[in-house]
Amino acid sequence: MTVVPPTTKRTTHRSAELAPTSSQADGWGHVVEQRSIPRGLVRAVLEGSVEASAAWRRALANVPAGALQLRRVLGEQKPAREPVAVIAFSLGCRVVLHAMREGMIAPGRVSHFVFAGSAAAPTSYRVVRPFVAAGSRVTHVYSRRDLVLDRLYPLGVARGRPSGRAPLALAGVQDLEAEVGH
């Protein structure tokens, strides 16, 4: 005997709405609920934007913890004859920049920083100046075609564009353009 679970069930929510059906779970639920493709898509986009904004705020809240972890890892490395490089991608760029700004990484400790697809504001890169002066190389990889940064980054900030979409043009920073984004 095969038991097939029902596709909908009652919730205890006061509106007594039905639980999502399989079509709602795959993204078409808003269209079905609204009985209109345009209205359903608009609602799906709005709800997706709210969820993405909340996820962005949670990620930003974890930047200091990530910077502390980076400090711990770098602290465990004995001053070695081998140079240390730090490669950061997307939100990881914010983690490294935060660690630099808060003194968790000493100028000269890292020989080369690579920031790729950065989700940090261009102004946040002012902090690299003492590191460049101490001999660290800094490479900034950006893409004008990065649609993820273009579409999602504005959800987490009031204004501005992420540095991962354009060259920084800062003294001592090598800007490299990539043909792909996230």
Alpha plus pi helix count = 7
- The overall average pLDDT, rounded, is 78
Structural class: alpha/beta
The protein's oligomeric status is single chain
The radius of gyration is: 22 Å
Q: Strand sequence of the main sheet, in spatial order? A: 1-2-3-4
The SSE string, one letter per element, is HHHHEHEHEHE
List segments where confidence is low: pLDDT < 50 over at least 5 consecutive residues.
Answer: 1-26
Q: What percentage of the residues does DSSP assign to strands (E)? A: 5-15%
Q: Biggest sheet, in brief?
A: 4 strands, parallel
What's the helical proportion of residues? 25-40%
Total beta strand runs: 4
How far apart the termini lie comes to 47 Å
Shape: elongated
Would you mind describing this structure in some detail?
The chain is of the alpha/beta class. Helix content is 39%, strand content 12%. It contains 7 helices and 4 strands, in the order H-H-H-H-E-H-E-H-E-H-E. The chain has helices at 22-25, 29-34, 37-61, 63-76, 91-101, 129-133, 147-152; strands spanning 85-89, 112-116, 137-142, 173-177. A 4-stranded parallel beta sheet has the order 1-2-3-4, covered by helices on one side. Helix 4 (63-76) crosses helix 5 (91-101).
